[in-house]
Amino acid sequence: MTHISAPGRWTAERANGWYANLPWLVGANFVPSTASNQLEMWQVETFDAQVIERELGWAAELGMNTMRVFLHDLLWAEDADGFRERVDRYLDIAAGKGISTMLVLFDSVWNPDVALGPQPEPRPGVHNSQWVQGPGRALADRGQWGRLRDYVEGIVGAFADDERVLVWDVWNEPSNLNGGRFAEPDNKRELVSELLPQVFEWARAAGPSQPLTSGVWSGKTLYDDPHARIQIENSDVISFHDYQTPERFEAKLLDLPRDRPLFLTEFMARTPGSTFAGILPIAKREKIASYCWGLVAGRSQTLYPWDSWTVSYVDNPPHPWFHDVFHTDGTPYRADEVALVRQVMGRD
Questions:
Q1: What is the CATH number of the domain that holds 277?
Q2: Is residue 104 one of the residues assigned to a domain?
Q3: Residue 179 neighbours by CB under 8 Å, 6+ apart
Q4: CA-CA distance, 172 to 219, in Å (whole number)?
Q5: Fewer CB near the terminus (10 Å): N or C of the chain?
Q6: CB count, 10 Å around CB of 15?
Q7: How far apart (Å, rounded) are the C-alpha atoms in residues 129 and 120?
Q8: pLDDT tens across 77-111, in order?
Q9: Does 6 map to a domain?
Q10: DSSP code per residue over 41-88
């Protein structure tokens, strides 16, 4: 099958040359334990630099050297200058601990009904119960696409030459329909097919020195998923998600393009068999940048499994935890896991 590259896409040679100068990258998808979603992380009333500094410090002690962090378009629309200042503050904290950051522009996962201001309290025992989509309902309103373009060009342009920013992930799981948990537009997939290439174009128009990506997530690849095809053919570096056993993870690698650097931007769900012990040795052997889901168990409640949306865990906490590495006091959930991370990162 012919591979098509979007205009402005980095050549494979450029992407590989850029990646060759980096250490092996290992980190987490980071939201501070005090935030239930992207808005609580970044809004001025709930942005907590002290918590961010403390929790990134625990990650750095393990040898983690990168984080993946979600932004939101409404924050830019409300107060672009203030949002930019808070992102700059976060990047200062992370860089001070030797941590680079992949910034995520949009996300199609969980609740599409999103509003600024105080966020609802997390639903007890429910995985990511207050996580919100971006652009959410605005995806189905072409009248708002100009605003979305302003956000993409504005935030990427603001940090286009910033060495603290590693990669731009333009859209997380863009065609995710969220298992019917929310009322999604009937034509969500068609809208994504139209808007996703434009988001790549807008990001490139801002002239970033960093590569762009959007991760293949549904278990399908370039060859049988039209959205994966759009993602791969527009990405400078190839990113993907995998929450499977080591054997299935290795099989997935055979289906992905290998002419560019690979970023495993989501892994580590203990119940399905995706663990640090199973995945990190393979990723190190292949020099695949790897980001577990979750760092500190908190308001995102991702220690609970995906099925907690329908199965109650309030009186029966999950064993093992689904995601996350630390308790809120910094105690590791599993000492053997953090010892392994330290060992593979050369911290011992």
A1: 3.20.20.80
A2: yes
A3: 309
A4: 14
A5: N
A6: 20
A7: 9
A8: 999 999 999 999 999 999 999 999 999 999 999 99
A9: no
A10: HHSTTT--HHHHHHHHHHHHHHT--EEEEE--HHHHHH-HHHHHHHHH
Q: Which domain holds residue 30?
A: 12-344
Q: Where are the alpha helices (DSSP H) in 223-324?
A: 226-234, 246-253, 276-286
Tokens of 152: 């993409």
Tokens of 111: 């609740």
Specify the 3-state DSSP secondary structure of 338.
helix
Q: Determine, yes or no, domain membership for 1.
A: no
Alpha carbons within 13 A on the beta-carbon side of 80 = 13
| pTM: predicted TM-score of the whole model, two decimal places | 0.97
Residue 2 pLDDT exceeds 60: no
Residue with tokens 């500190």, as numbered in its chain: 296
Nearest-angstrom CA–CA distance, 218 and 212: 19
Cβ neighbours of 274 (radius 10 Å) = 24
In a domain, 147, yes or no: yes
Q: What mean pLDDT do residues 56-64 have?
A: 98
User: What would the two tokens of residue 15 be?
Assistant: 């992407």
Quote the longest CA-to-CA distance of the chain.
Answer: 54
Q: Where are the beta strands (DSSP E) in the chain?
A: 26-29, 66-70, 100-107, 165-172, 212-213, 238-241, 262-267, 289-293
Strand order from edge to edge, sheet including 100-107: 212-213, 165-172, 100-107, 66-70, 26-29, 289-293, 262-267, 238-241
Q: Which two tokens stand for residue 265?
A: 């931007």
3-state secondary structure (DSSP) of residue 132: strand
Instruction: Count structural domains, the chain.
Output: 1
Cα 71–chain centre separation: 10
**Tens-digit pLDDT profile for residues 8-40:** 999 999 999 999 999 999 999 999 999 999 999
